[in-house]
Amino acid sequence: MFPHYYCGFYFLLGRGDLLSSRNIIRHVQGFNQYEAELSGRGRKSACGPATMATIINYYRPSKEQHSKWLRKWYKESKANWLGLSAKKMIRSLSVYGTPSKIPSKRMWSEYRKEIDHGRPVGIKFDQWFSFKWFSTHYRYRYHWVTGIGYEEQDEKRYLLVLDNGTKKEVIRKIDFTQNAPILSMIAFHHQDKS
């Protein structure tokens, strides 16, 4: 059994009728896709493997050097310069537990449930294969991040994510409703298969 470090905050805002909630999983170590021992083109497309490395490392901390750990996941997932599909991520994560794609109609409620149970979620922003080519209001065109929390304020819903594509570990707050048309989410239930 692995400890889950998470903390939920629930509080009332200024007006008594509005409830705001927030929950974030603590102690999730993010990996930078640009640290991978790969070619320049490989590093640019290593956000999916970096998300996988972050999720697996949460349950089974690795002592390997970050660059080697990321290269391992890039090769194991069969990622390429175009990126990593949700199907390939599910296949690769299945070695360590039970991954599943969260259905789009229940995405927010299922995402919240995963976070409330202390389980990081793989999130893919995919404007290209969602055929939303010309829209400019999405946070990323094509990028994997690790979902580690959420926040609800009034009628707004926000994802709290670790962005693998930055030099330093950054938690970003992203509007869920605005980005939902291009999102795919992978839930992961760890099982010790060693």
UniProtKB/TrEMBL annotation:
Pfam families hit by this protein: Peptidase_C39_2
Family matches, as InterPro entries: Peptidase_C39-like (IPR039564)
Limits of the Peptidase C39-like domain: 28-163
The organism's place on the tree of life at top rank: Bacteria
Protein name per UniProt: Peptidase C39-like domain-containing protein
Organism: Jeotgalibacillus proteolyticus
